[in-house]
Amino acid sequence: MDALTTLMELDDERSVDIVVDLGFGDSGKGVTVDRLAARSPETSLVVRFSGGHQVGHTVVRNGRRHTCSNFGAATLLGVPTYYLPSTTLFPPAALVEREQIRPIAPELLLHPLAMITTPYDVAYNRATERVNRHGSCGVGFGATVERHLKGVTVYAKDLTNRWVTAHKLAAVHEHYRARVAGTRFEAAFDDEVADLDDDLFVDIAAAFIAGVQIRPLDALPRKRPNLLFEGSQGILLDQVHGIFPHVTRADTTSKGALETLRALGRRGPVDIHYVTRTYQTRHGNGPMSSTMPVELRQTDGEANVLNDFQGAFRTAELDPALLDYALLTDAAYHDGFDVRKHLVVTCLDQRPDFDVDLLLRQLGTPFASVTTGHGPSAADSRTLGCCPSSTAPTGATAGRPASQR
Fold this sequence. Notes:
The protein is built from eleven helices and 16 strands. By secondary structure, it is an alpha/beta fold. It has two domains: 3-111 and 217-399, Adenylosuccinate Synthetase, subunit A, domain 1 (Adenylosuccinate Synthetase, Chain A, domain 1), CATH 3.40.440; 117-213, Adenylosuccinate Synthetase, subunit A, domain 2 (Orthogonal Bundle), CATH 1.10.300.
């Protein structure tokens, strides 16, 4: 019996949850993943299917706060993370984060074709962003994806051989050198790469890959049948559905997760958790559908701040019509699946007067459940009853703070 057959036979025993953001990112996906994994951390596996090391999913558990970038958002529970080929990792940052979470340091599993970001990807990203100001994170994610599309690859499997790593790194350098030659980015790129040390990166890459497992999709751990797909950024930043050029180089819908389930022969129901704050957020210069200001409270713990590359963190009134658009966009990928939809509304501690019932009436999608978040920890979440229609569930106000009743 091969591994794929085993996975298919476990179908009735496993749960599948997908967490995606209905907006422009920063909605609380990390807290949501942490909450879902806490149901059974011993049998769960977080699967990164979108984005990569550029994510910053902040989790608070048992008084400890950590921003998960190279490790999944269930890290503080000791749940392993698996990276698919559509994702990226940056070895230097991964090693730093591994030290930050010792002695927990759960397993990191990589598909052989997971993409590796190099210092030259970061340099090119930062050099171009200083000129373009599109709102990039400045950590080389988009540059890495573009480079792979052009056939200049560095995969996780490549890091197992130092000679291969060194030669591929040199090829990446030459690739960007040719791209910036004679352009307005050339001087900035020269500044960014002036102090880079190829030998040091090869050493770091070797140390990184020695501490992870390389596994193809059909060799996922049998003892962890509960798959928790952790999305990145938001549907409105999707590379084909977002408003160019203020998009990310990733499929931020449930598309990648569902394609993975098809490859595994998944037959059972899938739970998709759609996350939104009680207000609209966005980094940088990209458009927002609402300019109405919002009054926020208890923002001392806000993890999103001014970033040299992303720009300012902006907020505005929530736009239910835009949430409906995001839900419609994601539903385009649901063919052939029994999808149960769940709504997660976070940051009610920042807007205690926000009317969840009204939002439910404004949305055209029925939800199997509604969960409200009232703080930075999963312990601050409350799951309400089922919502078979777009009207509020019976007794929904019972799960809300007194100020909302």
